[in-house]
Each structure stands twice: as C-alpha cells, then as structure tokens.
Amino acid sequence: MARLLCSIEVISVVLFALNMLFLVLGGSVLGFGIYLKASKKFDVALSPHINAQIIGGEAIEIVGVALIIIGIFTVVLSALGCLGAILRNRFFLYLYGIILTLLMLCELAAFIIMMSARVRIRDSYESGLWNVFSRAYNTSQQDVIDAIGELQQEFQCCGVYNLDDYKKVNRTVPDSCHMGQSALQPVFAKGCAQAFIDWMWDEVPIIVGVVGAILVIEIFGLIASFSLAVAMSHFAYGRLRGTFVSESNA
Question: Where, if anywhere, are coiled coils annotated (predicted)?
Fold first, then answer.
C-alpha cells in the first residue's frame, strides 16, 4: 500500500508538470493564431476585396482561426488536467483522458489535411488571385486595384505571377510594383501569389514544431492520467478491502 501511495504521488507530480508545459504550449498556439490573424500581411493578402473573390482564400484564413480555437481548447484542457492531478479525482482524470484522446485525433487529422492540401491551396490562390487581378483591371474596379497595390507593397511583389501580367491587361506597371512606390527604383521580381504562399509556408515549421511538441506531451499526459486513475482505483479498493478485513477480524 505504501508503494502504491508513493506511485500515486509521483504520477500526480508528473501529470501536473506535463499539464503546465501543455498550458505553455497551448498559450503559444493561441498567441501564434492571434499573430496570424492580426498580421498586416495576412490582413492585406486576404482583404475583403480580394478574399471574397479568391477560391481557397477562406481555407487559408481558417488556419489562423483554427490555431486560436486549438490554443483555447488546449489551455482549458490543461487546466482540467492540473485539477485532476491536484484533486486526484478519477472522474476528472478519465474525462481528461477521453477529451485528450479526441483532441489528439482531431489535431493529427487537421495537420494531415493541411499538409496534403498545400499544393491545392497554392494553386487555388494563384488562379483565384489572377481572376481578381484581370477582372479588376479589365473593368476598372478601383477599390480592388487599390487593394492589389497595397498587396504589392506589403509583400514586395508585382502582378500575380510577375510584372508581365500588366501587359496582359494592357496596363503599365504601377508605382506599387517599385520599392518605396518610386518609378526610379527597380521593379519587384516575384509575383504576389508566390510571395504570399512563400510567407505562409515559412510559418509552417513553427506550426509543425509546436503541434509536434503538443502531441508528444499529450501522449505522455494521456498515459499519466489513466495510470493515476487506475492507481487511485487500486488504492481505494485496497483501503476498502483493508477496512473490511479489519472489521472481520474484530
């Protein structure tokens, strides 16, 4: 019984420590999701004038929202895990383990879907942006043209694929394609579709690293929570059995 009690103490400490780390990583995911949503680059690339007409634009925007939701859920779940470790309540521990299992499956599925859809998202953004670009200049939609100019300055790009796009719509290369919006400066070489996708994929290693770390902690947290719950059950049974034996001997 003493050895079992010692095991319960150790597992409780380990589970509490894992959930504190889980809490920190959950906060990191939440902060990164907020950063993406608040980022001027993200805001410009998916401005209302552009995003509403781009195929796949909504899918890209969902990434930031999904990270915020996962971050909030992770923080709340880690608090539940800490509560279960402190109170050693089997209901909290089993509930924590079940929710954690579901969260792990959802995170893994979302990650696989995101990575497998990378090429499709890139292609849909390129084709969608070209449709917006050509329609805006062919029909003189000034609000969209202004949004494209802002996009070009923010990402230091020109056109959808390159500066030749302006020849296709019979327009001269605008000042927004130049550094500092000065015609005396060189024209940006990269197209805006590629510039935005490159910026998005530069953020992927951070997402992969944080999500990977969370999944590892979740696995250990899952093992610790069920181990503690089972140990608590054995302890309660052993104490009940000891009481019954004592009463029988009496």
Answer: none
Higher-pLDDT residue of 249 and 73 is 73
Is the alpha carbon torsion for 137, 142, 148, 150 positive or negative? positive
Structure token pair of residue 209: 């690293």
Percent over 70 (pLDDT), the chain: 78
Listed residue (26, 33, 9, 31) closest to 78, CA to CA: 26
Copy the structure tokens of residue 247.
């009463």
Fold (CATH) for 97-245: Cd81 Antigen, Extracellular Domain; Chain: A (1.10.1450)
pTM over 0.70: no
- Are 151 and 44 a contacting pair, CB within 8 Å? yes
Separation CA 177–CA 157 (nearest Å): 6
Domains of the chain, by residue range, sit at 1-46+55-87, 97-245
| Cα–Cα dist 96/63, whole Å | 26
